[in-house]
Amino acid sequence: MKKLVLLLVCMFTMHTMVMADNDKPIQVNQLPAKAQTFLNTYFKDHKVALAKQETELFYKSYDVVFTNGEKVEFDKAGEWTEVKCQQNEVPAQIIPETIRTYVKTNYPDTKIVQIEKDKKEYEVKLSNGTDIDFHASGDWKKVDCEYSFLPAGIVPQAIVDDLAERFPGARISKAERERGGYKLTLGSGAEMIYAADGRFIRVEYD
Q: What Å distances lie between residue 180 and 24, 135, 195, 204, CA to CA?
């Protein structure tokens, strides 16, 4: 009896492992209806190179890759979760207006080439290499500008002035809003912590 139970447990475990990592190519018409509508609305002139279904133990998603290398990911219901463009800009209609306005105001010479979303936040990548995380409300959470720059007005002027005095010529590679204040990472690796009003609190080093 014990051997039979052990055999059944082993068979179930093997079946679970297979089901937890099951990717299979599918036809576009096998995507959820909402995903098909999205593709027909925003990518109707794109040729699909691959569509696949990814199945894990408690999760299912879909990937669609176009012949030009661009990609769209959907959840099990057909809601888009990521749009990655290389030659074109992410369709403006799917980007929240607050995010579009923020990017247009602070990065007027760039375009959004990638966007990801979940229930709590959005993440966008700009054509100049900047990555920006936004809360669902549209307020920015983190700006990673290691390969670009931090626009004027993103943080209080008091912070800019304090940085210029403490670290003349220092370049900000990342800005984060947390716990009602700011954390700025400099190119040197130093992390500057400020209160919401721009008051200096401390500096940390890795």
A: 45, 14, 7, 18
According to DSSP, the residues that pair with 134 across neighbouring strands are: 122, 140
State the pTM of this model. 0.84
CA dihedral in degrees (79, 85, 90, 96; nearest 10)?
Answer: 50
pLDDT tens for the chain, 206 residues: list them.
Answer: 555 444 444 444 444 444 445 789 999 999 999 999 999 999 999 999 999 999 987 789 999 999 999 999 999 999 999 999 977 899 999 999 999 999 999 999 999 999 999 988 999 999 999 999 999 989 999 999 988 888 888 999 999 999 999 999 999 999 999 888 999 999 989 999 999 999 999 999 87
Distance CA 46, CA 115 (A): 18
Distances (CA, A) of 201 to 38, 114, 172, 182, 183: 47, 35, 17, 10, 10
Cα angle vertex 24, ends 19, 116, to 5°? 90
In whole angstroms, what is the distance from residue 15 CA to residue 110 CA? 48
Report the alpha-carbon distance of residue 115 to residue 84 in Å, rounded: 7
